[in-house]
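Lecture notes, unit on protein representations.

Consider one protein chain, 178 amino acids long.
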Amino acid sequence: MFNADVPEEDIQAAILRLDEKYQSDEYAFQVNKGGGGYQFLTKPAYQASIGIMLKQQSKKRLSTSALETLSIIAYKQPISKTEIENIRGVNCDYAVQKLLDKGLVEIRGKADTIGRPILYGTSPKFMEYFGINDLSELPTPKDFTQEVNTIGESIDADTISENIDTEPSDSSTPSPEQ
């Protein structure tokens, strides 16, 4: 549009000056980096007041099923509904439709497999919604420790077989040979 070659350092310096300017308490907004760019967003201290003034509701939270479905799509994209359902173990039609309606997920095309199922992926609004610039900023599986995701004590197979072999049998129950 402007066909101007502006050095990146000049752009970064201008953004820094804007950020410093709008940190002042006289402004109700600030410069925020997210979604692959920069935005002017309301400062948290003013959010409730401006929300009431504009009669807006805050973002509705995602249901657990929608959040599970969205995380599968984010990590495995492009992915079909059948693959999502195989991972979750339940039907995901409603969750995928709600994510499409909210604009967090978009159709990425069709698979080259039998039936040509629709493939889903995250949208730019997903990045904005979660305040990330790139999918590489998502937590990696190594960020989740095993202890956090485990219920009860960990027992290895050898311990189980030892316990089975040493348990006393109930002599009051007739064996099949008797």
